[in-house]
Design a protein that fits this description.
The complex is a heterodimer of chains A (about 325) and B (about 450). With about 325 residues, chain A is mostly helical. Chain A has 14 helices and no strands. Chain B is mainly alpha-helical and about 450 residues long. Helix content of chain B is about 70%, strand content about 5%. Chain B has helices spanning about 5-25, 30-40, 40-60, 85-90, 95, 145-175, 180-200, 220-255, 255-270, 275-290, 300-335, 335-345, 350-360, 360-385, 395-405, 415-445; strands at about 1-5, 65, 85, 115-120, 125. In chain B, the strands form 2 sheets. A 3-stranded antiparallel β-sheet of chain B has the order 1-2-3. In chain B, a hairpin with a 5-residue loop joins strand 4 and strand 5. The chains are: A mainly alpha (about 325), B mainly alpha (about 450). The interface of A and B includes residues 19, 26, 35, 301 and 308 of A.
Chain lengths: ~325, ~450
């Protein structure tokens, strides 16, 4: 087991290097630091001095890959590639374009993101699994048919409308919860209620439909027939056997997104003004702060790879037939 | 002067390719069978009619030209306006040309905002001014409601005539192909006509869906947005398909280091969160367009390049799903006897791939294509909100929602642009989803009898 994990982690390294090279190519080769400076400084006619000053302040005035002026090892380390890209591997994110420490910011903003994303995941899973199991229980009946129609209709609505509609209904018309904002501690519940509810509702359509197919596939299997021929009631078959076996693909599918919860959700956070990593990323994209976008891309891929490894491990835990080699 | 935008050419090319594909499928029994299964579903026929209406609007909006300016004395040749128009603009000239000053509610005769107006007796007062065009033909403003109902009645009357025609057509078609649920298609068409005709008649004198902040007719904006959605949903596949098919099939067929290399590429691309990867690409695209601003003679061409770039980026970031499916399938196929027989006979790899593997994974490609469409349309709105979508000057559902969202706080609430974007987008995506479902059911080998 341990050897397997170690090997998986080693496999992850070339992928992270690939991500790193790709972001480096995108952010520094396709568009040069000069372009970045011009974009940040805004005006079309900026002086060369202003650009040079901007670059020097942020350490973009060095050569990209190879510094001839430096000595020895400095030839490689005093370059943009080393200082901006390689350092990401030790989780040193440096400063954003407005000279604030990205690492500290991430640590601070991680918690509101989790406070929103974890309830959305758990409540969403509970709601979708019950809905899907209900549809599977009443399979091939009008209830099932209209359930699927409802799922498809809900899938066809953009998340933006769920958010805007929810804000309008609960905050503007009924005045139940504040429209947006965030507070720490127990007050957070008031602010998080609506975003969590909308996050759950927005996900019902596609997840329930997918879970329904999983449960239906399960009901066609031999062990279900055996259970029925033993004389077990249909409810026992569904809740005891089908639910348990159907949860294997569902849960292992969920494992991959668990690490990504740290990144928060882009839309909800920025609509509801929750100071998490999602809104941080959106602000960075909108103000074209490349340093933050670069860091978030890297963290995102690290977390995704962690999720993949966790998925593989969880497969062996729930299904002893799978052996890791 | 005709202007061919890059996306226009691609959209028409795709439309032609679709027609060619349809003709080819008809001549091949093994492809015609699943399609006839698709077309025997009521939901598929109904959604196909809806999609067809959207496609007609989108295609009309994809023929562009620059109108000639009136010749002035002492000028040689004709000068062309810098504004690029489409055939849809010509058809909707009444909607496009008759802007108000600012917001106005659907079918309103007065503006949303109070203004300082001069009363006949010379005094000034703040009140809601009459609209420049909305209901301007009425002598008495109070007649508006009666006029609106009369127009709707007229529209419904016209729709009733259309209903007779549609009914006759359905009857004839039913006799020729009884297995296809023509009634569902006819009913959908009738519903669309019954909605569209009164709206069309009303739009001659009113703003049926109100106006937006700068006084543009919302109905016009919604119709213009259709093209953007269709372009994103279809042109993206031009990038997605070749990459997905070629790499997926090659990984599954050749195995070994080719497989490793291709898998490495798609795991790497996959591991970057989608929106961030797209954002990174789009930010770069912006810089490139900015740097080469002089290449594009009109603003429309520049916005179009951004749209095309966005499609390319969406394609580049979303081929991995298709490639993974195709890899698995061709891995399975390459073990089968007929492939091994072909290899034993010394048939070249390219020929095996082209003749034996690719045709046998075609059903996966078709299913993936129709399933991706709705996702791409929804993604456009989100990306435009994040600020990495289409050019702000391009009309799209995303930019409409974005503009409307900022006005949610006003009292009385401005709901009409949001509602219009919602209804149009919902119909498009719902139709696409239903159609995709039917296609999946028709092509899935597990349901074959």
């Amino acid at each position: 087991m341990l050897a397997y994990i170690v090997r998986r982690v080693l496999y992850a390294i070339p992928i992270l290097i690939g991500v790193n090279l790709l972001t480096f190519a995108l952010f520094f080769v396709v568009n040069t630091p000069d372009d970045m400076a011009r974009m940040q400084l805004g005006a079309k006619r900026v002086t060369t001095e202003a650009i040079e000053k901007w670059k020097a302040e942020r350490g973009y005035d060095k050569p990209l890959l190879f510094n001839e002026k430096a000595s020895d090892i400095g030839k490689l380390t005093q370059t943009i590639f080393f200082e901006k890209s390689v350092r990401l591997f030790v989780l040193d994110f440096g400063a954003s374009e407005d000279q604030r420490n990205i690492g500290a910011e991430i640590q601070k903003r991680m918690w509101p993101s989790l406070a929103l994303a974890v309830p959305v995941l758990l409540v969403g899973l509970a709601v979708c699994v019950s809905f899907a199991l209900g549809m599977a229980f009443f399979r091939a009946s009008p209830l099932d048919f209209w359930g699927v129609v409802l799922c498809i209709a809900m899938m066809s609505i953009s998340m933006l409308f769920y958010i805007v509609g929810g804000q309008f209904l609960l905050s503007k018309v009924l005045h139940l919860v504040p429209i947006s904002g965030y507070a720490g501690g127990a007050d957070a519940v008031k602010f998080l209620f609506l975003p969590v509810a909308i996050g759950v509702i927005g996900g019902i359509g596609s997840s329930s439909r997918w879970y329904r197919t999983i449960f239906l596939e399960e009901t066609a299997k031999d062990y279900v027939r055996t259970a029925r021929s033993k004389g077990l009631a249909e409810t026992t078959v569904m809740f005891r056997h089908v639910l348990k076996n159907g949860m294997i693909p569902i849960l292992t599918g969920v494992v991959v997104v668990i690490p990504l919860l740290f990144l928060g959700s882009l839309l909800s956070e920025s609509f509801f003004g929750i100071p998490g990593l999602g809104s941080y990323t959106i602000d960075a994209i909108q103000s074209q702060d490349f340093a933050i976008v670069r860091s978030m891309v890297f963290i995102g891929s690290v977390l995704y790879i962690v999720g993949l490894i966790l998925t593989d491990i969880s497969y062996t835990l729930v299904d002893p037939r799978i052996r890791l080699q | 002067m005709p202007v061919i935008l890059a996306t226009d050419a691609l959209v028409w090319l795709l439309a032609a390719a679709l027609v060619a594909l349809a003709l080819y499928c008809r001549s091949q029994p093994h492809l015609a069978a699943p399609w006839s299964r698709v077309f025997s579903s009521r939901a598929a026929m109904a959604s196909l009619v809806v999609l067809g209406c959207f496609a007609t609007v989108g295609l009309l909006d994809s023929i562009h030209y620059r109108p000639a300016l009136e010749a002035k004395a002492g000028m040689k040749g004709t000068a062309y306006s810098s504004e690029v128009l489409s055939l849809l603009d010509v058809a909707l000239a009444r909607l496009k040309g008759r802007g108000e000053k600012t917001y106005s509610a659907p079918l309103a005769t007065r503006s949303y905002a109070k203004e300082l107006v001069e009363l006949p007796d010379g005094k000034q007062a703040r009140e809601f001014p009459r609209l420049r065009y909305g209901g301007a033909h009425l002598a008495q403003e109070e007649d508006a409601l009666r006029d609106i109902f009369a127009t709707i009645g007229l529209g419904l009357l016209a729709a009733a005539i259309a209903a007779v025609l549609i009914g006759l057509a359905v009857r004839r078609l039913e006799r020729r192909r009884p297995d296809v649920p023509w009634r569902a298609a006819g009913a959908t068409l009738l519903a669309i006509v019954a909605l569209a005709l009164p709206m069309l008649l009303l739009s001659r004198h009113y703003h049926v869906l109100g106006t937006d902040k700068v006084g543009q007719d919302v109905l016009y904006l919604a119709l213009k947005s259709i093209r953007t959605s269709l372009v994103i949903g279809t042109v993206t596949t031009l990038v997605l398909l070749p990459l997905g098919i070629a790499l997926g099939v090659m990984a599954g067929y050749f195995k070994g280091w080719v497989d490793d290399a291709i898998q490495y590429v798609f795991t790497t691309l996959n591991s970057i969160p989608g929106v961030l990867l797209i954002a990174a690409f789009v930010l770069m695209l912006q810089v490139i367009i900015e740097r080469n601003a002089e290449v594009f003679p009109t603003a429309a061409q520049r916005a179009d390049m951004r749209l095309l770039g966005l499609c390319a980026i969406l394609g580049l970031t979303s081929w991995t799903g298709l490639a993974r499916l195709l890899r698995g399938e061709s891995l399975k196929l390459s073990q089968l006897e007929y492939i091994q027989a072909a290899q034993a006979f010394g048939v070249s790899h390219t020929r095996i791939l082209g003749r034996h593997i690719v045709p046998n994974v075609a059903h996966i490609v078709i299913i993936a294509l129709v399933m991706d469409f709705s996702g791409l349309v929804l993604a456009e709105a989100v990306l435009s909100y994040v600020g990495v979508g289409v050019d702000p000057s391009t009309t799209s559902f995303g930019t409409m929602i974005n503009a409307a969202r900022l006005e949610m706080g006003r009292e009385p609430i401005i709901w009409w642009s949001l509602a219009a974007a919602f209804v149009f987008m919902f119909l498009l995506v719902l139709a696409a989803n239903l159609f995709a479902d039917a296609v999946r059911d028709g092509f899935d080998p597990r349901v074959r009898v």
